Amino acid sequence: MGYRIDIKRLIIYILIAILLILVIRGCVAANRQKKQREENLPLTSDFILKVYDHKADSVRSMPLEEYLIGVTAAEMPASFEPEALKAQAVAARTFTVRRMVAFGGKPCGKGGCDVCTDSSCCQAWESDAAMEKNWGKNHDKYYEKVRSAVYGTRGMIAIYDSEPIEAMYHSTSGGRTEDSENVYSSALPYLRSVESPGEENAPYYAGEENYSRKNFAKLVNKNFPKADLSARKLEDQVKILSRYNSGRVAELKIGKTTVTGREFRGALELQSTNFDIIFRKDDVKIKTIGFGHGVGLSQLGANAMAKEGAS
Q1: Has residue 291 got a pLDDT over 90?
Q2: Is 46 helix (H, G, I), strand (E, B) or coil?
Q3: What is the pTM of this model?
């Protein structure tokens, strides 16, 4: 004996089942979206990038946002204000995206990777083990603070003319940032010199280096052989010729040659190019203001703004 199939009833059952599936899936998606909104996370997926670890001489593959936790932890003190850490995360993400092959960027290329962990080339980066070592008993608190800054800005980058900007940042501007062309090769409209107040109490706002007259002349001559400085005639041989509007030294005369402030800073390993040279009877004192190249985001300036309530 066979069974009669009620086609009409079967179709109704199938439609009800489909409807229930759609409702359940909709509820799951809605809960996911609600959770992400509560965590302030945009609905984006993590992109995988290749990172060359220059210390371990190895290649790592990791999600973009997880990589940025290591960058933010390495580039800015975790004790800084949450909003300053968010600004750092956006700058670091923008720098990275501009170099990712997945976004049509120009990669670092070391080890065949998008970026490397050498701060002189790309951005500094720390593993969780390094964070534990650096932060000690504060590890859990600081890690969550940095992670919140990264995921709280997830997917956010800075753009100009529909392209990711060349995101530059430094420790301390000394009160005013620098125009990009005074440090690098090109003038970028979004990297203009601006005031950066509130840095006066920063650890590296002011610096000082002292040399004997003999050692100063020896060090300069070693780096700039054409200078031919004499320890007894430094006052007549060394002179700052020009400064940029930011106060940083553009050019200076050293004996028989002229060099840029950047070249002089690099040779003597000074904190910044905003310096004054003071000659005394037995020694030479160089006073600096600020720390770093001065272009783009001043990290101490960002922290000062965050303390004043800036987002």
Answers
A1: yes
A2: coil
A3: 0.82
Per-residue exposure over 165-204, b if at least 16 CB sit within 10 Å of its own CB, e if not: bbbbbbbbbbbbbbbbebbbeeebeebebeebebbeebeb
Residue 96's DSSP bridge partners are none
- Alpha carbons 285 and 287: distance in angstroms, whole number: 6
pLDDT in tens, 199-211: 999 999 999 999 9
283 CB-near residues (< 8 Å, 6+ apart): 210, 211, 212, 213, 216
Question: How deeply is 37 buried, as exposed, middle or buried, from its count of CB atoms within 10 A (0-12, 13-18, 19+)?
Answer: exposed
- Indicate the burial class of 118 (C-beta count within 10 angstroms; 0-12, 13-18, 19 or more): middle
Across the chain, how many H-helices and E-strands are there? Answer: 9, 13
pLDDT reading at 267 higher than 50: yes
Instruction: Report pLDDT digits (tens) over 192-245.
Output: 999 999 999 999 999 999 999 999 999 999 999 999 999 999 999 999 999 999
CA angle 240-242-244, nearest 5°? Answer: 130
Structure tokens at 195: 């005031």
